[in-house]
Structures are given as C-alpha cells and as structure tokens.
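Renewal narrative, Specific Aim 1. Our central claim is that a sequence can be written position by position from structural information alone. The example that follows is taken directly from our test logs and has not been curated for this report. It begins with the structure tokens describing the chain, in the order in which they were read.
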C-alpha cells in the first residue's frame, strides 16, 4: 500500500475502505474484517453512519495490530460546538473501542465549526486524535478554519469523481498543505459512470475494470480515495491498482469528462443546509 504524508508528518494510506450506508451491524463488522484481510488499512466511518460500534468490533476481530490501522471518524452537525464536540469524540472512541483516532473530521461545514475545531485541537494535543480535518468544505470555508485557529486542517474529504473533479479546489488544497480525500469516487454509479465509453475504453486498454481506472486516476492526482463494497471480490479488485499507471493521454481523456457539478447535491443550497441542520440522529 502506498501512503501520503499529512502536514503533521502522519502517513495515510492512499486507498481506504468506507462504510457509508452499511447499516446492518453484522454485515458492517464482516465487511470491515474482509476489507482488512484484502489489504485495506484505512477504515472510514462517521457518527452519522450509525455503525461505529460494528466497525470497532470488526477492527478488534481482524487480528491486525492497532498501529497498522488508520481509522477515521467524523463529527455530525448536531454535535458542533466546543463542549458537544469534546463529548462526541469520547463517544466515538467508546463505540469504536479505541484509545485514539488517526483522523477526525468535521463532517459538514455547518454549525459552530470553530468551537468544534478548538475542541478537536485540544483532543489532538492530548493524543486522542492523531490528525484533524474537515469534510465538504469549499476553499473559502477551509481558509476560514485555517485563518482563525492554531492548527491547520490535515485533510479535506470531498466529493471527487470523473464528473466532479474539483479542478480548482484540489490545487488550492495542495497549496495550503491540506490533503484531498475523495468520497464517492464512483459517484455511486450515477450518470452512467460504469457504462461511460471513455472509461470503458481506458479500462480495456489496461486490462482493468472501470473502478480500478477511476481509483488509479485519483491516486495519480495525489488524492486519497475511499472505495466501498460489501463483496470480497470487489474489495480485492478495488485495491489492486498499484501494478499499472495511466499515461498522460488517458489522464487527459478522464479530465475531459468533468462537468464541475455534484452527482448528489450542493453544500451551498439553502435547502440542503436546512435539512442537515435539522437532521437529528440518536448518536
């Protein structure tokens, strides 16, 4: 597995396994074990996924030493603010049965994110969080967090796929020393990603799947990629991307697919902000 080095010196695997929408506890636990057996060491969860406890059981039953794993979780909107975030970190650690998290992210750019960030800074200094970052932050929000706090975000996890390539945001993050991490690298199959003629042709040329081509494209752009599947054979396929490289021509062909439009929703849509702000979870 290849790694990137974050702005605090911590090494992070370039491909990880995400557990979004794996609601069944037994399936989630099994999937985490299967992913680790397949070679994944970065496991990404969140309080809002409601499966941290199952992830923790999977981590413990995997038999892999804690220092060989890179575990990420995230703070949901309803728990922003200093004190609520301090408690949320403790709850996530307890559910995951861990003494520390490798990475903890503010999941959405809403609520009292500055109060949350200061609680995360304190937890970082206390050794409970090895790195701290954000998710779904546009460049202006990212600069706001960095400009008014002591510790700069190490990671910004955002939607990145062939249709939403973040062509302006990622260079901005690189200049800031913030690692870009991709959620939904396959756009959940939307917009016909797996049937796209350009991606199919590139996949055929290299003898790889469309999914492998997309993940390889991300890694070559310097973006950490999160892949999700509950099928063991697909898990193994998604991580088998280090035996080939896309040439400049094929990188450019994929770049031409960009529409600069989310396959899901905009975090600047007032209706989305309202929905997330009002979404209360039993966490």
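The sequence written for that structure reads:
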């Amino acid at each position: 597995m290849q790694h990137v080095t974050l702005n605090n010196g911590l090494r992070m695997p370039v491909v990880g396994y995400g557990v979004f929408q794996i609601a069944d506890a037994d399936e989630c636990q099994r999937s985490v074990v299967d992913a680790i057996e397949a070679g994944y060491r970065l496991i990404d969860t969140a309080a809002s996924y409601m499966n941290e406890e199952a992830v923790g059981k999977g981590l413990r039953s995997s038999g892999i030493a804690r220092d060989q794993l890179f575990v990420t979780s995230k703070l949901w909107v309803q728990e922003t603010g200093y004190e609520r975030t301090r408690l949320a970190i403790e709850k996530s650690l307890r559910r995951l049965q861990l003494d520390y998290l490798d990475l903890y992210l503010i999941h959405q750019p809403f609520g009292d994110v500055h109060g949350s960030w200061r609680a995360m800074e304190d937890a970082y200094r206390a050794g409970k969080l090895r790195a701290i970052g954000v998710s779904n932050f546009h460049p202006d929000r990212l600069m706001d967090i960095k400009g008014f706090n002591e510790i700069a975000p190490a990671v910004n996890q955002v939607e990145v796929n062939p249709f939403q390539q973040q062509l302006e945001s990622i260079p901005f993050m690189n200049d800031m020393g913030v690692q870009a991490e991709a959620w939904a690298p396959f756009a959940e199959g939307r917009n016909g990603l797996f049937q796209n003629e350009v991606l199919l042709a590139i996949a055929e040329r290299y003898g790889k799947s469309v999914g492998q081509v997309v993940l390889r494209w991300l890694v070559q752009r310097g973006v950490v990629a999160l892949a999700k599947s509950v099928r063991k054979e697909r898990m193994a396929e998604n991580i088998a991307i280090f035996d080939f490289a896309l040439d400049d021509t094929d990188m450019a062909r994929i770049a031409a697919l960009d529409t600069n439009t989310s396959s899901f929703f905009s975090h600047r849509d007032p209706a989305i902000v309202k929905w997330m702000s009002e979404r209360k979870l039993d966490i």
